[in-house]
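Please fill in the sequence for the structure shown.

STRUCTURE ENCODING:
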């Protein structure tokens, strides 16, 4: 297995055919094009959280059927695979839809711009533990993103390398952040979001330290300074549209929108260790949202809960999660009649950030005669297209139980 990195220059207008030849293997003919100039409208595919889920092949097939396989960019808001150090998940798994194998028809013709999700972060390395066990065993300061950084050497920035970056894609300026936490179980026993296992209280090497933040993003951190400078840059200010992308759901109905995105406060008691997450200290809501609102960001794209939902705040910033490709963790909203299971003091229904979810504008799903402001399904899959020429974002759904049925446009909104 080989990883090749090539720089192509001198491309003319239109699209140029190419093949890859390696160790006697010759690929089919694909095409590539020069990067679009800053004033040119573009088409971007917005997606997230593929994670080898069974609906991904159907999702991407409907993308191709609906919009073709050639885009000016694919914005991937994290969680491409499950255990990032397992090569088969990226390349050649036949038991599950490997990332590049499944995405090949599109990524052979369209550049991908990925964000780090929690599934791009490995935990503590071990000579004896399985890759899954290593993935699930990070501690603060004891984790790495080596595979991700080697797999995606670009885009990058001087301050963040591949972890946070910006790129102008035609008339859209994209700023990508590393905003994700380790995932821990919300259950009230054992190592999880809210406590350490009782049997491990005296053994810090086995602590999980709650659902800790991997990379600081709060005001005063290097990443926040990057975002602040980038939003004020000429490239961002002159772009027709500004998009900020990161993995964690800042506004959302999904189960993973809780607890707040903040450093856990460790409370040590006589025979237990527990963790608290004050909503007032949510770094995205407290620090990042005011910054993007003041800068006139048009769209914030995230993933993580495997749902589709969107919001618009008072400053006019659209917030979109379009990660429903299977294994949904549910949408907990009054219209769904469902509440998150969390301890007292945490938001059990709706958006913890206080915004009202927007009902899809074209063809929402309906439950009990009530239009739903989300898609949370393990049969219906979703993808989204940003069309900067029209200035709109369109979301499509497809019922995988009816493979020959077309994708349905169910939501459309203007980037204004």
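FILLED IN BY: designer on duty
SEQUENCE:
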């Amino acid at each position: 297995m080989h990883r090749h990195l090539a720089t192509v220059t001198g491309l003319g207008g239109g699209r140029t055919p190419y093949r890859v030849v390696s160790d006697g293997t010759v690929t089919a003919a694909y095409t590539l094009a020069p990067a679009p100039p800053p004033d040119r409208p573009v088409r971007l595919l917005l997606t997230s959280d593929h994670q080898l889920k069974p609906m991904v092949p159907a999702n991407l097939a409907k993308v191709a059927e609906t919009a073709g396989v050639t885009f000016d960019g694919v914005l991937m808001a994290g969680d491409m695979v499950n255990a990032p150090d397992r090569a088969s998940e990226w390349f050649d798994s036949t038991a599950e839809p490997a990332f590049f194998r499944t995405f090949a028809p599109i990524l052979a013709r369209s550049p991908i711009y990925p964000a780090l999700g929690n599934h791009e972060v490995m935990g503590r390395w071990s000579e004896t533990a399985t890759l899954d066990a290593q993935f699930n065993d990070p501690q603060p300061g004891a984790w790495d993103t080596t595979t991700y950084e080697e797999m995606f050497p670009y885009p990058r920035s001087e301050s963040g390398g591949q972890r946070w970056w910006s790129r102008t894609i035609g008339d859209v300026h994209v700023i990508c952040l590393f905003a994700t936490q380790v995932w821990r179980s919300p259950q009230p026993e054992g190592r999880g979001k809210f406590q350490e296992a009782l049997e491990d209280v005296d053994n810090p090497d086995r602590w999980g330290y709650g659902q800790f933040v991997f990379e600081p993003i709060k005001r005063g951190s290097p990443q926040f300074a990057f975002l602040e400078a980038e939003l004020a840059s000429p490239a961002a200010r002159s772009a027709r549209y500004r998009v900020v992308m990161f993995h964690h759901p800042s506004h959302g109905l999904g189960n993973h929108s809780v607890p707040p995105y903040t450093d856990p406060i460790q409370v040590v008691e006589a025979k237990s260790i527990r963790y608290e997450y004050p909503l007032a200290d949510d770094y995205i809501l407290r620090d990042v949202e005011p910054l993007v609102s003041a800068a006139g960001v048009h769209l914030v794209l995230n993933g993580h809960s495997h749902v589709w939902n969107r919001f618009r705040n008072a400053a006019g910033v659209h917030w979109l999660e379009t990660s429903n490709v299977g294994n949904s963790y549910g949408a907990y909203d009054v219209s769904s009649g469902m509440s998150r299971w969390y301890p007292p003091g945490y938001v059990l229904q709706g958006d913890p950030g206080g915004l009202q979810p927007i009902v899809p504008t074209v063809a929402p799903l309906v439950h009990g005669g009530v239009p739903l402001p989300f898609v949370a399904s393990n049969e219906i899959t979703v993808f989204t297209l940003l069309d900067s020429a029209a200035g709109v974002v369109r979301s499509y759904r497809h019922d995988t139980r009816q493979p020959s049925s077309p994708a349905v446009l169910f939501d459309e909104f203007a980037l204004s």
